[in-house]
Amino acid sequence: MKDFGYTVIKQRTIDYDQFDGRLLNEVLQMEPSFKVCLSCGGCTATCSANDLVSFNVRRMNLLLRRGETVELESEIKKCMLCGKCMLVCPRGINIRNVIMLIKKSILKYNPVKS
Amino acid sequence: MKHIVIIGGGIAGIETASALTDAGHWVTLIEKDAQIGGKLNNWSNLFPNFTPVEKITDELKEKCRRKDFSILTNTEVNSVLRNKDKFSINTSDNQQLEADAIVVATGYELFDARRKEEYGYKIYDHVITSADLEQLFKSGEKLTVAAGKIPKRIAFVHCVGSRDEKSGNHYCSKVCCITGVKQAIELKKHLPDAEIFCFYMDLRMYGKHFEELYREAQEKYDIQFIRGRLSEASEKIDKSLLIKAEDTLSGRPLKMNVDLLVLLIGMEAGKGTAAAATSCSIGCEESGFLQTADSFLQSNISMQDGIFLAGSCTAPMTVNDTVLHARSAAQEVNNYLQKTR
Description:
The complex is a heterodimer of chains A (114) and B (341). Chain A has 114 residues and is an all-alpha fold.
C-alpha cells in the first residue's frame, strides 16, 4: 500500500482518569516527606548527574504524580545516589530513599514490563 | 487613670502608644535601643511606591513628641509579675512600673544569612543582603564591586531563610518577594546598564499595588525572573560569583556569572520576642512568633488576660499591616480597660 505518511498520533493530554496511583501511594506511604516537594529545582541545580545527562530529580516527582512510569523507569537509572540534592532541599525530603523506593517498586506497576 | 506599658518602640509600639494616649490613658513605652523607630530606621524606601522611610518615621516620632507619653530608651524588661488585674514590671535599670495592661510589640529580627553557608554571605566579598542594600541606598554611596568596577550583572535570591526546612523556618516571610522587586527596580535606576535577575520559587504579590510593581519591573526595567532556587554560589578569582539553579520552567540546570548577589532575607521572631514570651508567660507558635487567641477576630489577644499583642511579634508583617494591627491592639486594650474599670 502506498505510504502517505499518515500515522495515528498519541494524545498528549494527561488523562487523569487513567492515572494509576499505586506506585505513587506506595512511595508516599514509605517516604511521606516526598509529599511536600515545591518544585523549586534546587535538587536538579546541584545534581552531579544532571550536568552531563538529562536527569531531573524535580521532574521525577511530576512523572510519578502523573503516572508516567515508563519514562520514570529509564530516568531513575541515571541517579548515582550521591545525596547532594538532600543537602539543598528546602523541604528536607529524603530524596535518596524516594529513588530507592521507586527502583524497588516500579517493576510491579510498570505496565510495559509486567 | 489607667497605665499601659508597651514593650517595643518600633512602629507597632509607637502607633499603639499614640492611639492609647489619644483615648486618655497614661502610656509608657519601653525600647531596648537608644532610639525609637525600630528596624525602620535602617531602611531606605518602602514598597510598593518608594516612599522614603523618613516620611513614616518622622511622623511617628512627631506623634511621640506631641503626645504625652513616657519613653524609656536603652531599657529592657526583666520580669513581669501579675497581681490580680495589675502587673508589676521590673526593668533592666531596676525601675518598678505598675500597669493595668501590657502590649507586647517586640517585632522581629532579620534572618542571619550566614546560616545559609552555601550562598557565601560574609565568606565571599560580593554577597550582600537586602538589608545591606538598603543601607547602601541610604548612604547614597555608589555601588561598586572588586577594583571599583560597576556591577554589570546582579542576581537576587528570594526566600533566604524563609520556606526553608534547613533554616528551621517553614513559614513565608511575606515581605521579601515585593522587596526584591522594589530593590531590583531601584538598582536598575542606579545602574541602567546592569542586567538584573530574580531567582524565585513563587512570587507572592498579594498586596495593593504589588502586582503592578512586578509588571512595571518587567515592562519598564527589564528585570528578568527565573523560577528556580539557587543551590549554591561560589566565588571566582576575580571575585565575581558563579551561581547554580535549575531553570525549572525550561527543565534544565542553569549557571550564571554575576558581579553581585543580593539575598532577600526573611523575618524571624528573634530574641526580644522570645524574651517577652517568657517574661509575660505567653505562648509561642512553632515558628517562634507569638500565639494569638484566634487568627480572625482576636489577633491582638495573647494567651494571658490583660496582655495584648501588636505587630510583627505575631507574624511577619508589612509596615501597613503593622500600623493597622497596632491600632486594633489599642482598641482591644481600651475595651479591656473599660470592662475592668
